[in-house]
């Protein structure tokens, strides 16, 4: 017993002389682990129902990408119109009723919003108040996002007529009309891209056309998608260093010379949305349920991410990661270099809307298939052990 007590006293004395250093070293290691351990957090900031009333009838398509104008986030739905919310709090600022709603994304400049609607009208709207400045009849649903440049608004109507309007007055400057004899078409439309006075836009008959921006005259016409089922070129062409990247829905991704319309290379996977340029890579959401990272130079695959069900929206770059919605699933965040999943959020009924990112406030906005507008906070956070 005395021997045991003596042994305990020796151990206590040893710890008194050396223990502080040992404990301090251990705490330093735990602190270092605590600082280096991170996880990707995705959480809801707020949710708003964008429809004036609950939709108890036929499910509509909600795919307008939210638009940020000043301190507002403006969102259209496929049922009854457009709503503006204070982007930090989600407080409703104004609401504009439009029969059959709005599907395509919008363009804006200063306090002016330009958007096509499903009631056969194209609108210029005061962004701060929701007051209509002018409207232009297209006599067709409008399913493609407009392009605004130097006081002219360009857009493709649902009947394959491409318009150029004076942005200040809504006066028609010119139009280009194209016949489509196919029986089936994917719901959507190509947004034009403009470079050096030339517009590039896809059509539902599978053609990519280069038009003179001043007159609408055809510069070249390249028939790409010759599929017997869905020939649509609904994806927005992406222009980079003299090359155009554009996809046919159930066809291929093409790299085309902007000057002559010549096909330089192609990838055997169709797509509904445009590619996203990230350094020397193209991030490409395919119509067969993959997100591909491809080498920009030749289309070789770097990595792929397989979606469980449905297709992906256009991919957005967000604080060094990638974010997109799934038509039958989640909002996903991927590592840009490897395609590894970082985090996700499930809103219910999928996402057809390309997310809108606000990197300054670590926030992502999107509308779900149920017409609910989500403000999502996402990013890396430290994981605490204490």
Give the structure's gist in a few sentences.
This protein has 386 residues and is mostly beta strands. It has a domain at 40-60 and 309-386: Lipocalin (Beta Barrel). The protein has one helix at 2-36; strands spanning 38-49, 67-69, 72-77, 81-86, 92-97, 107-109, 112-116, 121-126, 132-137, 147-149, 152-156, 161-166, 172-177, 193-195, 198-202, 207-212, 218-223, 238-240, 243-247, 253-257, 263-267, 276-278, 281-285, 290-295, 301-306, 316-318, 321-325, 331-335, 341-345, 356-358, 363-367, 372-382.
Structural summary, described in words:
The protein is built from one helix and 32 strands. The strands form eight sheets. A four-stranded antiparallel beta sheet has the order 1-32-31-30. The protein has a domain at 40-60 and 309-386: Lipocalin (Beta Barrel), CATH 2.40.128. It is globular, with a radius of gyration of 26 Å. It has one helix at 2-36, and strands at 38-49, 67-69, 72-77, 81-86, 92-97, 107-109, 112-116, 121-126, 132-137, 147-149, 152-156, 161-166, 172-177, 193-195, 198-202, 207-212, 218-223, 238-240, 243-247, 253-257, 263-267, 276-278, 281-285, 290-295, 301-306, 316-318, 321-325, 331-335, 341-345, 356-358, 363-367, 372-382. The chain is mostly beta strands.
């Amino acid at each position: 017993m005395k021997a045991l007590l003596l042994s305990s006293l020796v151990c206590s004395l040893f710890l008194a002389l050396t223990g502080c250093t040992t404990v301090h070293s251990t705490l330093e290691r735990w602190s270092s682990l605590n600082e280096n351990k991170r996880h990707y957090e995705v959480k809801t900031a707020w949710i708003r129902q964008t429809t004036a009333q609950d939709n108890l009838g036929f499910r509509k398509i909600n795919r307008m990408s939210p638009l940020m104008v000043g301190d507002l986030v403006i969102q259209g739905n496929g049922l009854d119109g457009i709503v503006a919310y204070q982007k930090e709090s989600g407080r409703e600022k104004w609401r504009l009723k439009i029969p059959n709603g709005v599907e395509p994304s919008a363009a804006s400049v200063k306090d002016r919003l330009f958007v096509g609607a499903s009631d056969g009208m194209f609108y210029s709207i005061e962004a701060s108040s929701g007051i209509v400045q002018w409207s232009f009849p297209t006599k067709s649903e409008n399913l493609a996002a407009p392009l605004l440049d130097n006081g002219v608004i360009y857009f493709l109507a649902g009947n394959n007529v491409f318009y150029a309007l004076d942005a200040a007055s809504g006066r028609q400057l010119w139009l280009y009309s194209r016949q489509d004899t196919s029986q089936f078409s994917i719901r959507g439309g190509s947004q034009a891209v403009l470079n050096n006075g030339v517009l590039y836009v896809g059509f539902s008959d599978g053609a990519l056309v280069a038009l003179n921006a001043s007159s609408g005259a055809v510069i070249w016409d390249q028939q790409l998608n010759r599929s017997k089922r869905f020939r649509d070129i609904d994806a927005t062409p992406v222009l980079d260093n003299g090359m155009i990247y554009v996809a046919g829905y159930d066809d291929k991704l093409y790299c085309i010379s902007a000057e002559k319309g010549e096909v330089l290379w192609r990838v055997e996977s169709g797509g509904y949305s445009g590619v996203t340029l990230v350094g020397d890579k193209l991030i490409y959401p395919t119509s067969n349920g993959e997100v591909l990272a491809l080498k920009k130079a030749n289309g070789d695959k770097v990595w792929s991410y397989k979606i469980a069900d449905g297709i992906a929206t256009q991919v957005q770059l967000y604080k060094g990661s990638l974010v997109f919605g799934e038509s039958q699933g989640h909002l996903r965040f991927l590592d840009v270099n490897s395609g590894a999943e970082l985090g996700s959020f499930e809103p219910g009924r999928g996402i057809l809307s390309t997310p809108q990112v606000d990197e300054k406030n670590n926030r992502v906005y999107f509308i779900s298939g149920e017409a609910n507008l989500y403000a999502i906070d996402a990013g890396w956070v430290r994981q605490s052990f204490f």
